[in-house]
Amino acid sequence: MAKSRHYKKIEKNAVSYFLNCVQSGLHAVGKILVKFFKICDSKLTIMIVPHSQGKVINFQTNVFALIFGIILVLGIVSSFVYFKRQDMGVRTELSQALKENHDLLASFDELRDENNNVLNSARRFKSSLSQTLSLLGINQSVTVAKNTKSDSDLNSLFDIQEQASGSSREVSDMKQLSAYLESAIQPIEQIGKMLESQETLFTDIPNIWPIKGGKGHISQQFGQTTHPITGLWYIHKGLDISTYGVGDPILATANGQVVTVAYDSSFGNYVIIKHKHGIYTRYCHMATVRAHKGQFVSQRDVIGTIGNTGLSTGPHLHYEVHVGSDVVDPAKYVNIKLTK
């Protein structure tokens, strides 16, 4: 019991001490606040004395109002400086955005020009493709019918310019062009297959320049002319092709079989090749012959070299094309100059 009473007494003393400290602290704070408010409530007289003999201006205030006014002025000035800086930042960003917008507009104009160029090329491509398909006899109605369902024909591409404007028009144009080019793949593949299937026919019919590398020029055309040596009027039955020198390779202009290798006082060394479809070709005035009778040659095989043998005024190739018993103008069969 004695110990319990002792602990309660200590507890009571501690609480009493704590309450006294709190009361003393509150009393001190109250004094400070009273003193502070007395200072703030102190009267001040502010006088404005002009340098001239004008009237002196004075007004009374207190410390609290003066401090509040100073804080208010500092707040206004700080806010002005802050928003001014923000405004300068916004102006800088706006200027940069305007510059970027200007660059984008310039790029867009350039893209629009390129778009127009592509459309013009597409028009030419469409016209050329249609003509080619017509010449080859490829039916375009099926392709057009399929394309109409997907709006991929270039006619709709050209008409859409009347329906759209701005960037949407360019996007629509590109979509239409893409669809048309996609649809053009099939007829182009048909052309390729046709050319591949006709490759044998092209190599069986004379259709290349008879001198390797496309060298030479036509020095005498097919037809009526005056003989350069006899001076008599006669029919020149071939093409004279000159390279201004001896030794340039002469090519077989189509697949065939060599049926004649001989020398003639007029033609000099010459070779005759028999091709399919009743076509013959003759190569005259050769310096050397690299083919023999009965040999099968392929188009572009070297069969000899240009020379000046026989009745000739200079090194050249006299080239003839015969269809059956008729002699025809070789110019109709010389439509490709080799570049190899």
Discrete helix count: 6
Q: What is the first-to-last residue Cα distance?
A: 130 Å
Radius of gyration: 53 Å
Instruction: Please identify the structural class as seen in this structure.
Output: alpha+beta
- Residue ranges: pLDDT <50 for 5 or more in a row? 142-152, 160-164, 336-340
Number of strands: 14
How much strand?
Answer: 15-25%
Overall average pLDDT: 80
- Helices and strands, in order, run as HEEHHHHHEEEEEEEEEEEE
How would you characterize the overall build of this protein?
This protein has six helices and 14 strands. It has 340 residues and is an alpha+beta fold. The strands form three sheets. Strands 3, 6, 7, 8, 9, 10, 11, 12, 13 and 14 form a ten-stranded antiparallel beta sheet that branches. Strands 1-2 form a two-stranded antiparallel ribbon. The relative contact order is 0.07. The protein is rod-shaped. Residues 142-152, 160-164 and 336-340 have low confidence and may be disordered. Helix 2 (63-136) runs parallel beside helix 5 (166-197).
